[in-house]
Amino acid sequence: VQLQxxxxxxxxxxxxxxxxxxASGRNVSTYAMxxxxxxxxxxxxxxxxxxxxGGSTYYEDSVKGRFTIFRDNAKNTFYLQMNSxxxxxxxxxxxxxxxxxxxxxxxxxxxWGQGTQVTVSS
Length: 122
What we know:
mainly beta
């Protein structure tokens, strides 16, 4: 499975962006999906994840109410909708998928995109 993240860019505070994670090689409709970010000088942070069924969802506190994850199985793609962006959201964003169906994203059955830069200006 290869994941290609896209959609990053420069946006003003309060604005919105939608990141895409296009999968190829396998149908990922039964995979868990998630998004992480890495900001300069900080550790990678798990932001949002959902199990393949949608029955289990995780939101990191700082993005609750602002970020949403959803998928389009017909396009084999999942998305991160980011609203009310803040300068502290500036980071490289990574998508991840896990074939076990649970939002673990560790080990040989997890797959990662290459990252896309999001910069939020004040």
